[in-house]
Structures are given as C-alpha cells and as structure tokens.
Amino acid sequence: DVQPRPRRPHWFERYGQPCVAELLGAALFIFIGCLSVVEQSEGTGRLQPALAHGLALAIVVAVLGEI
Question: Which InterPro entries does this UniProt record tie to the protein (predicted)?
C-alpha cells in the first residue's frame, strides 16, 4: 500500500496564524487588564485587576490555544 504524503501547511497556517493569534491574545489581555483598573473605587483593592487578568488569560488560552 502506498500511503499519501502528509499535506504541507500553507505559509499562513505556519507563520501568519500564530502571529495574528499572539497579537490578538496580547491585545485582549492588555485591554481587559487596563479596563479593570479604569474605575479605581475604594473597595476593589487588588482583587478586581487580578481576577480580570486571570479571566482574560483563561479566555485567550481557551479560544486561541489550538493555534
């Protein structure tokens, strides 16, 4: 039996997608983190930015982790 050769990935799949995913993930992470500290009220302390960054990181990994 002759097995077919595996398909070579397109240049965009190999180089473009990871760069776009990294750019989008970093932008989302920074944007969410900055939005979490825009309104600095008295009772939030350090917990709100920490939770916002953790949630943003979890979302980025879940959505873009395959790439």
Answer: Aquaporin-like, Aquaporin_8, MIP
Tell me if residue 53 falls in helix, strand or coil.
Answer: helix
Average pLDDT of the segment spanning 1-29: 88
* d(C-alpha 17, C-alpha 45), whole Å: 37
d(CA 14, CA 7): 12
Helix-then-strand count for the chain, H and E: 3, 0
Q: What is the pLDDT of residue 40?
A: 65
Altogether, the residues listed in the chain come to a count of 67
Find tokens 């595996």 and name the residue.
6
Tens digit of pLDDT for each residue in 33-63? 888 877 766 766 788 888 888 998 998 899 8
